[in-house]
Amino acid sequence: MSKVLIIGAGGVGQVVVHKCAQVPEVFSEIHLASRTKSKCDAIAKQVKDRWKRDVQTHALDADNVQETVALIRKVKPDLLLNVALPYQDLALMEACLETGVDYLDTANYEPKDVAKFEYKWQWAYQERFQQAGIMALLGSGFDPGVTNVFTAYAAKHHFDEIRELDILDANAGQHGQHFATNFNPEINIREVTAKGRFWENGEWKETEPLSVKQSYDFPEGIGPMNIYLMYHEELESLARHFPTLKRARFWMTFSDNYLKHLEVLQNVGMTRIDPVDYKGCKVIPLEFLKALLPDPGSLGPLTKGRTCIGNIVKGTKDGKEREYYIYNICDHQQAYAEVGSQAISYTTGVPAMIGAMMMLTKKWSKPGVWNMEQFDPDPFMDALNKHGLPWTEVFLKG
Ligand code: NDP
């Protein structure tokens, strides 16, 4: 029996609230706070109608540490679950330190003015969290999140040594829009327009954005799709925590149509994140573009098809070479029928709820700041099967 304070009433926040509501034995009291209270109220109403659970709602500017501290003192949660934007991570961690409350998020901190995906700012909180006797769980979404747990599970059960890791993120869904992103457009476009980066032989190697591609034949009838090498934040923690890895890469699918639009937007400067003077106002082109694009939430009823996200791990077991693929397939329409959101928000929100459940039931409990692969993967893997993200494993070799 515990009380959770969820911050952020966007696409992922909606799924998290629905999923917590389905587990009343753990989440006995649910609070939702976000910048726009009406969005919290709309989610609370859906959850009341569908799951007959009450959700208390609050307006909050999560950039303001003292405002969050005041809300935490009022609500007295056992855990703060951050599904606002990566910009709020540090302010929310500060508020947790000041009030002695555990913390969880799904994306690493990013400064607003430069697209940098690094754990260094959050890892720097390690000592302060340990001294305060509280825990922070970083990156409890799908990727990062489940992909970290998949790696830990492979290493624990199927390999003596893991040497190569490829994380493959495929969205084979269609929403019928000319151009739209499946989660927050600003965060998504910052990520895909950044340089590619992968870990090889003890160092990071950089590639031009989306310049390395290949085709991969995805399982269960999804079929061949183009995958593009990108940098993704879990590579940093996985390369650190699995030092036997000689190579670690991340790949994502993009349709030709998505890339065509992105190229034009980039060429005309619409993806810039530095302020531009327009008639005496400072405008950040990417923020303005976000205002023009479809709200990812509106894609829920339109999106059909499936996602397939998983890891291919190569290494050795009992002196023999082994190649292993573990993945989840999630259906956009099934996700929408259950929680009113498409699969991208669903695959992030479910692991956020499960990470919170691991912490609140003390299956994962240790003061300090941790990544997902630093805990026993088994209870998390069981929970994925029970709460809507079942996984499949295939031995490709050995
Ligand atoms: P959305 O933009 O849909 O939602 C973000 C929410 O946070 C909005 O409700 C927004 O409020 C609120 N918010 C923003 N700033 C503040 C603030 N200062 N104070 C209070 N609330 C604020 O994003 P998503 O739901 O798509 O994504 C949520 C998080 O999940 C992001 O950090 C994203 O990077 C992460 N993510 C992680 C993935 C993973 O697999 N690990 C995959 C996909 C996303 P308002 O409605 O008023 O704008």
UniProtKB/TrEMBL annotation:
Domain Saccharopine dehydrogenase-like C-terminal, chain residue ranges per copy: 141-389
Descriptive protein name: Saccharopine dehydrogenase
Record Gene3D superfamilies: Dihydrodipicolinate Reductase, domain 2 (3.30.360.10), NAD(P)-binding Rossmann-like Domain (3.40.50.720)
Source organism, top-level taxon: Bacteria
SUPFAM superfamilies registered for this protein in UniProt: NAD(P)-binding Rossmann-fold domains
PANTHER family in the record: CARBOXYNORSPERMIDINE SYNTHASE (PTHR43796:SF2)
Domain Saccharopine dehydrogenase NADP binding: from-to ranges: 4-137
InterPro entries: NAD(P)-bd_dom_sf, Sacchrp_dh-like_C, Sacchrp_dh_NADP-bd
